[in-house]
Amino acid sequence: MKKFSKLNVKLKDYSYPIFIGENLISEIKCLIPKFENYSKIIVITDEVVLKNLFQSYKKIETLSKKKFFSVILPSGEKTKSFKHLQFLCESILKERIDRDVLLICLGGGVVGDITGLTANLLLRGVDFIQIPTTLLAQVDSSVGGKTAINSKYGKNLIGSFNQPKAVIISTETLKMLEKRQIISGYAEILKYSLISDKSFFGFLQKNGKKILSLDTATTIKTIKVSCKIKSKIVGKDEKERGIREILNFGHTFGHAIESFTGFSKKIFHGEAVILGMYLALKFSNYLGLCDINLVNKFCIHLNELKIPYKLRDYKIKISSLNFLKHIKFDKKIKNNKIKFILLRDFAKPVAYVVKDENMLNNFLKKNLV
Ligand SMILES: NC(=O)c1ccc[n+]([C@@H]2O[C@H](COP(=O)([O-])OP(=O)(O)OC[C@H]3O[C@@H](n4cnc5c(N)ncnc54)[C@H](O)[C@@H]3O)[C@@H](O)[C@H]2O)c1
Fold first, then answer.
1. Domain segments of the chain as ranges
2. Residues forming a β-bridge with 283
3. Rounded percentage of the chain residues whose pLDDT exceeds 90
């Protein structure tokens, strides 16, 4: 048995393990005690993951024996659609399943989100586990049970809360990931340090380069701390009725940027979150909530890692009014009021509801650079 760490996501009436280590996919039978009792093992992945992680995919096939089948989806955000949800559900139903099947998501956040939703819908609910294969999915989307597809009216608008039976994070899966995708995952790691743990920010200042180059021990430690922070928050507020909203730090501005660029490859989710955190910190300072030193620490850290954090780094030009329009598409807008998670300091997030849109517009006019 390989060495691994185990965390538990403790929810009100249910908890599940997150296993973190290297080469854990071959240990799936030990990690999931019921594995051999499932009537079918259904792997859901995408074409790019299949090509890059073919050995891992074959390993699951071998361990599942004759119970195995798979559905391969196209790669990319457009897969989170009604069309692909229907395709996925019907590809599985065609195999005449019962409720004792196990869905295994092998992929990034896109495959994870659509698999979680499918598991919730098929026969009114079947088991699923997550084997996240991007850094973003390993530190964020595989933990916490949010599942969704997109609608023409916005991102993640059709979904449910559905917790997996387990999450298996096996870091060797990251080796073929392109650099921009690693930076995208780093965004969420950096977010945890800002909203929750100043000493973790210190760790990132020392070890950021090692994480970006995927040094195994440092990456495992970083994923562990990140999952611990996210699990703790999710454990307190599974359905995002309160404290869980602090995880949206940087996301309201970030989603507006993604929405403006049409959720295209021009800017990935995590890259937009980095720009969003920069704007959220600047806005916190603009409102007198935080000292400029906090903004500077963020910028110095990203400069050292050569990670872009300004709109102009992506050649994105947008007017303040257009930006405001995109902010308002966010599903977190309630009663037409814009709410941001801002920071007073490290680990001191505050929810801020905008009362005066002119003031926000003035801020944007000066800061959309
Ligand atoms: N459910 C949640 O709580 C939550 C949280 C954050 C983000 N998300 C969602 O996650 C999605 C973004 O996730 P993502 O960044 O993982 O995107 P993704 O799933 O699209 O993966 C990014 C790209 O990397 C490829 N890829 C995946 N694993 C690979 C590997 N090991 N080697 C090489 N290539 C690989 C994919 O095919 C894809 O092209 C968004 O849809 C976002 O809304 C969900």
1. 4-175, 179-367
2. none
3. 91
Quick check: CB of 110 below 6 Å from ligand 1?
yes
Q: Whole-prediction pTM value?
A: 0.96
Query: Which residues in 45-55 are b (16+ Cβ under 10 Å) and which e?
Result: bbebbbebbee
**What is the widest separation between alpha-carbon atoms in the chain?**
63
Task: Write the pLDDT tens digit of every residue in 191-217.
Answer: 999 999 999 999 999 999 999 999 999
Q: How far is CA 245 from the centre of its chain?
A: 14
In this structure, the residue with its CA closest to atom 11 of ligand 1 is 109
Task: Give the pLDDT band of residue 271 (cuts 50, 70, 90).
Answer: very high
Reported as a pLDDT band with limits 50, 70 and 90, residue 265 is confident
Q: Which of 248, 233, 264 is nearest to 332 (CA)?
A: 248
Check residues 263 and 79 and name the one with the higher pLDDT. 79
- Residue of 110, 229, 234 to mutate, ligand 1, most atoms within 8 A of C-beta: 110
Give the fold, CATH level 3, of 179-367: Dehydroquinate synthase-like, alpha domain (1.20.1090)
pLDDT average, residue stretch 268-285? 97
Residue from 224, 228, 244, 282 carrying the catalytic annotation: 244
- Which member of 12, 96, 124, 241 is catalytic? 124
Q: Which of 51, 52, 111, 113 to mutate to test the pocket of ligand 1 (most atoms within 8 A of CB)?
A: 113
Common-topology check for domains 4-175 and 179-367: no
188 is catalytic: yes
| CATH class for the domain made up of 4-175 | alpha beta
Calculate helix-pair angle for 216-236, 198-212, nearest 10 degrees: 140
